[in-house]
Design brief:
By secondary structure, this protein is an alpha/beta fold. Helices cover 31% and strands 23% of the residues. The strands form 2 sheets. It has an 8-stranded mixed β-sheet, sandwiched between helices. The longest helix has 18 residues.
């Protein structure tokens, strides 16, 4: 089966007055139809830049220096501007980290969702009818109201005519999720979609994504800091640090038995509600300067299991059972 998304050797750089920031360096991963893949790591690890690169939305001073991103077998970087426009918002949707900037302040929220649906519908009947039971173009408003209700917007019919500034931060975030799901996309890139939402609304959004995957076989890249959400939602997880992929594998395997010292340190730094007396371990040291990344393993200066050769070159991805690990310890078969 062909992957919905295949990222190979992706390098994304930013040219600044002080030098080149290598935000993403050699990232590889794939997503299958009906699969939810979590992308995790500390702030500055390159998660959001990876998502923007996949959509070919990197603007100057940024540039995609190397690599390929294939959607349904076609290289996204080879598409024309009009082809990209057709793809974005239709077959591929993105939930942006700052939803307020994704909305036009001069148009109502409902009208903007309506325009997305109308622009990307194919033929007289849009696939959204499978979920919402709608058949005709004049039902677009009803579809939007139904979606606003599905993402937890109170009184959605009235809110349809409100402007973005009249929505609270949590509400505009939910409207952004609704916009991303409205056209039954084959691939959703969700960048911190539930950050700041209360627990009940977060659960509602997670259920909505699960329904989308089950009913339409949609593929999802879920970018987050919250490993508890990853544990509940994601089939596989990609762990990034300082622009590099450190570990990729099934979520239950990676979170229960991490093979990369960075993954282990990341898990140890998270409070455990089931172990309230357990001490939280802080990851000592600092993330490498993005303008002066070391030649060796990006985590070497903070790693308690560092070897001499870790400072010489960043380790390749080693296959370790059903996962891949960028650590020389994986080569040695130890942790």
């Amino acid at each position: 089966m062909m992957s919905v998304l295949q990222v190979d050797g992706l390098h994304t750089y930013f040219d600044t007055e002080n030098g080149i920031v290598r935000a993403v360096e050699g990232v590889d991963f794939s997503i299958e139809p009906g699969e939810i893949v979590g992308l995790v790591g500390e702030s500055g690890s390159g998660k959001s830049v990876t998502a923007s690169s996949i959509m070919n939305l990197v603007e100057r001073p940024g540039r995609i220096a190397e690599g390929t991103v294939r959607y349904d077998g076609q290289d996204v970087f080879d598409l024309s501007k009009s082809e990209l426009q057709d793809l974005r918002g239709g077959e591929i949707s993105m939930v942006f980290q700052d939803p307020m900037n994704a909305f036009n302040p001069t148009q109502t929220v409902g009208r903007q969702l309506h325009d997305v649906l109308r622009t990307h519908r194919n033929g007289a009947v849009h696939p959204v009818k499978r979920i919402l039971g709608l058949d005709h173009d004049e039902d677009c408003k009803e579809a939007v109201v139904e979606m606003l209700d599905a993402v937890g917007i109170p009184n959605p019919e009235a809110r349809y005519s409100d402007y973005p500034h009249e929505f609270s931060g949590g509400m505009i975030q939910r409207a952004m999720v609704g916009m991303a799901l409205l056209c039954d996309p084959k691939l959703v890139l969700a960048d911190e979609p539930t950050t700041g939402l209360d627990v009940s609304i977060e659960r509602q959004i997670l259920e909505l994504f699960n329904d989308l995957v089950e009913e339409l076989n949609t593929a999802v890249l879920w970018i987050t800091h919250d490993l508890s959400v990853v544990a509940k939602l994601c089939d596989r997880v990609v762990v990034m640090y300082a622009g590099k992929v450190m570990e990729v594998g099934p979520t239950d395997v990676v979170l229960s038995d991490p093979a990369n010292p960075y993954t282990e340190a990341l898990l140890d730094s998270i409070p455990r509600y089931d172990r309230p007396d357990e001490e939280i371990r802080v990851i000592e040291g600092d993330v490498p300067d993005p303008l002066n990344r070391p030649d060796g393993c990006r985590f070497a200066d903070r790693c308690p299991k560092v070897h001499e050769r870790c400072h010489d070159a960043h380790p390749p991805q080693y296959e370790l059972g059903d996962r891949e690990v960028a650590c020389y310890l994986a080569e040695e078969g130890t942790k």
